[in-house]
Amino acid sequence: MSTDDCNSLESTSTLTGINNNPRHIAIIMDGNGRWAQKRFMPRAIGHQAGVKAVRKIVEYCAKQEVEVLTLFAFSSENWRRPDEEVSLLMGLFMATLQREINKLDRNNIRLRFIGDRTAFSDKLQIKMAEGEAQTKDNNALTLVIAANYGGRWDLCQAFRTVAGKIASGELKDQDINEQLINQYLSTADLPEPDLFIRTGGEQRVSNFLLWQLAYTELYFTATLWPDFDQNSLEEAINSFKSRQRRFGHTGEQLLDKSITLK
């Protein structure tokens, strides 16, 4: 694969949006349980407070004309948590969907899910599909919920698909490049994230969008998710705007308007 093949994906998927805002923001919403424990409350209260924070962030992104907001709601590793907490999260997930889908639709927000749905109950899978179908034509903001998602899972399912097509003769080995793999990822129809945010003080990506984050600006904050509000997001976006994104070029090249970033 040529350098041009590699760079074309970077340059076309990471251009900023309106008012130099990131087109796509991806967030790991960390700290719900610790937020509750600090207040001597059950962890369930922290997760409920986290849902309220989601509403505020979704509203802000829609107002700022961000194109895509991806939230890591439940990772493939979260099944390792105590059964009681997993059961609570599943119930909260269902209740939130039942309550919020109509609101999203009224506000012209498209709902998408990425991840392996097969581990969820039939009832929850049906509700997820209903939410996607009801909002599929909306275009103010695409809200992507990563549920039972892992970056390694995403890559494995893409590679499995490509391998199957090679075995059937639809593709040849030499057809494999970044663009091909990208089109079989769960985010194939979305721009790559421009800004990644993790709340709660941890500084790692935790198997989230591993392929897609290759050129994403990273922002970490100690603020626990239930306390992460519109002002917090504005600070993160301002940090993003202050950075020079070179994609392998020099700073001088970026200042030369005659050069196309490819």
Explain this structure.
- The chain is α/β, with parallel strands linked by helices.
- Helices cover 45% and strands 14% of the residues.
- The protein contains 9 helices and 6 strands.
- Helix 3 packs parallel to helix 4 (83-106).
Secondary-structure element string: HEHHEHEHEHHEEHH
Q: Which structural class do the helices and strands define? A: alpha/beta
The largest pleated sheet is described as: 6 strands, parallel
Helical percent range? 40-55%
Strand order of the largest sheet: 3-4-2-1-5-6
Number of strands: 6
What's the arrangement of secondary structure elements?
Layout: H1 3-13, E1 24-28, H2 32-38, H3 43-63, E2 68-75, H4 83-106, E3 109-114, H5 122-135, E4 141-149, H6 151-168, H7 178-182, E5 195-198, E6 217-220, H8 230-241, H9 251-255
Parallel strand pairs: 1-2, 1-5, 2-4, 3-4, 5-6
Helix pairs in contact: 2-3, 3-4, 4-5
